[in-house]
């Protein structure tokens, strides 16, 4: 039997939401073992001078705990 845990992370990118998700997952995998999946809980942008400055995502990352 496995036990999983969910943690929330926020990642950002100047390129796109997809890039922010990729960066967030890559960073989570550096710290967390056995990452199984994630879902995007929220998406936001910051705007400067009338243009999108940054894409931000809030991710719920699921990982399996070690025995």
Please indicate the percent range of residues in DSSP E strands (runs of 2 or more): over 45%
- Note the main sheet: 3 strands, antiparallel
Question: Roughly how many Å is the radius of gyration?
Answer: 14 Å
Q: Helix content range of the residues, please? A: 10-25%
Strand order across the biggest sheet? 1-3-2
**Average pLDDT score:** 96
**Structural class by sheet pairing and helices:** alpha+beta
| SS element count, helices | 1
Number of strands: 3
- Shape field: elongated
Instruction: Give me the strand/helix succession.
Output: EHEE
Question: What gap, in angstroms, lies between the N and C termini?
Answer: 10 Å
Which ranges are low-confidence, i.e. pLDDT below 50, for 5 or more consecutive residues? none
């Amino acid at each position: 039997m496995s036990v999983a845990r969910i943690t929330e992370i926020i990642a950002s990118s100047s390129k796109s939401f997809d890039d922010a998700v990729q960066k967030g997952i890559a960073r989570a995998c550096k710290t967390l073992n056995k990452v199984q999946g994630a879902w995007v809980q929220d998406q936001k942008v910051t705007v400067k001078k009338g243009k999108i400055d940054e894409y931000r995502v809030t991710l719920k990352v699921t990982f399996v705990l070690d025995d």
